[in-house]
From TrEMBL, chain B:
Localization annotation: Cell inner membrane
Keywords: Cell inner membrane, Cell membrane, Membrane, Transmembrane, Transmembrane helix
Cellular component GO terms held in the UniProt record: plasma membrane
InterPro entries on file: PqiA-like, PqiA-PqiB_transport
Native source species: Sulfurirhabdus autotrophica
Coiled coil: none
Record-annotated membrane-spanning stretches: 52-71, 112-132, 152-172, 178-195
Listed name of the protein: Paraquat-inducible protein A
Top-level taxon in the UniProt lineage: Bacteria
Length: 209, 208
């Protein structure tokens, strides 16, 4: 505890991009503090119910994630032959096609990371809501922070659209359930991440432990 | 104007995960964040060396990524090897101008500009440049955000392989260019996360 800065009187915020030290000031509702030197985001005044909202959005995204992965993305009809694929099915074909490195990369960025991020965030938000000891919340937040840049659902969705156009020349396309679900999933993942008030979460976790 | 306070100068360390600012330990031990337990560093360890290493590897692989076929198509009409550029040309000639531009931006321009930008950032820090610091910080923010869009063509190949492989008309396989391309995206992302933007501003204090 001797290493702890006296946070009761003055709280400091260091800019993550230029290291300039700022005093933490109270902001108006929905206010955002930016670094005076480099303009980087410092902190914001999130609405008090933002983590409640983040939980609702994350739970919805979890359901959408399951649907998006169960149903085919789209189907294809070429001269009477019908084929369709799910995301995982596509990863499997790549793997069987001996493109294992690429298959792993696709699995990691479109299935594993989004799933881990969603489940992890949901769990942390449930823990925070219950106000309990917070089992696993700290390592999970570390993990989310680290893998976040690797979740690429929105890039994947654009990739699906490009493939649709490429295939439209040679086959009849039937959009699948998962195509629309992926669109919604992208929106809900972004919205829950944007609502999540990490600063409030850390303060609460520190108080509990 | 007073020189801006730098956390390290006044014995403070900022946590990169939970952002708590705490006092650095006086002993030589590795410091850990009192709130979340993450290891604390004044600056990202070996930032420039790691940035350069990942960047150079990415630059080398950028050549096979663009030269080798990303996709092999075999049909009744013969075999066709598509590189990233020929895929863009196909989209363009078939009238999908918008998508051709999107793929060109995501697959060719973004990785290229990202590598150039990282080289500028790492190089200017190494030379102790004090110019355009705010612009360089903004550039760093931009490349962190934009790099992921280069994965686009990998996803296109994935879907085409899965859907067309089983059809009777043609079969599509991922080419060696796909692995090289994926590696370029991964390596540039590692390079960007290794770079510590705070190094851009450290030069100011030395100059004043
Ligand atoms: Zn700053
Ligand atoms: Zn911390």
């Amino acid at each position: 505890m001797a290493n702890n800065l006296d946070t009761s009187s003055v709280t400091f915020v260091a800019c993550q991009e230029c290291d300039l030290l700022h005093r933490h000031a109270t902001l108006p509702p929905k206010g955002v503090a930016r670094c005076v030197r480099c303009g980087a985001f410092l902190y914001r005044q999130a609405p008090s119910d933002s983590n409640e909202r983040a939980l609702a959005l994350a739970l919805t995204a979890c359901i959408l994630f399951v649907i998006a992965n169960i149903y085919p993305i789209f189907g294809l009809e070429v001269q009477g032959t019908h084929t369709s694929t799910t995301l995982f099915g596509a990863v499997e074909s790549l793997w069987d096609d001996n493109s294992r490195a690429v298959a792993t990369l696709v699995f990691f960025t479109t299935i594993f990371v989004p799933a881990a991020e969603l489940i992890g965030l949901t769990w942390v938000l449930v823990v925070l809501r219950s106000g309990s000891q917070g089992w696993g919340a700290v390592p999970i937040l570390h993990f989310i922070e680290r893998v976040k840049p690797w979740g690429m659902v929105e890039v994947f969705l654009l990739g699906v659209l490009v493939s649709l156009v490429k295939l439209a020349h040679i086959a009849i396309i039937e959009p699948g359930m998962a195509l629309f679900t992926f669109g919604a999933l992208m929106v809900f993942i972004a919205a829950s991440a944007a609502s999540f008030d990490a600063d409030a979460a850390w303060v609460q976790l520190e108080a509990v432990n | 104007m007073n020189p801006a306070p730098i956390t390290a100068r006044i014995g403070l360390l900022a946590c990169e995960v939970c952002r708590l600012v705490s006092r650095a330990p006086s002993t030589g031990d590795v410091a850990h964040c009192p709130r979340c337990g993450a290891a604390l560093h004044t600056r990202k360890p070996a930032s420039l060396v790691r940035t350069w290493a990942f960047l150079i590897a990415a630059m080398i692989l950028y050549v096979p990524a663009n030269v080798l076929p990303i996709m092999d198509t075999s049909s009744l009409f013969g075999t066709q090897n598509d590189t990233i550029l020929s895929g863009i040309a196909f989209l363009w000639t078939s009238g999908s101008y918008v998508l051709a531009m999107v793929v060109f931006f995501a697959s060719v321009l973004v990785p290229l500009l990202k590598m150039i930008a990282l080289a500028i950032l790492a190089g200017s820090v190494q030379m102790g440049s004090v110019r355009y610091r705010r612009t360089r910080t903004r550039l760093y923010r931009l490349i962190e955000f934009a790099g992921r869009w280069s994965m686009l063509d990998i996803y296109v190949v994935t879907i085409l392989v899965a859907l067309v492989q089983v059809s009777t008309l043609a079969s599509i396989h991922a080419g060696p260019g796909a692995a090289a391309f994926g590696a370029v995206v991964v390596l540039t992302m590692f390079s960007a996360t290794s770079f510590d933007p705070r190094l851009i501003w450290d030069t100011q204090e030395e100059a004043s």
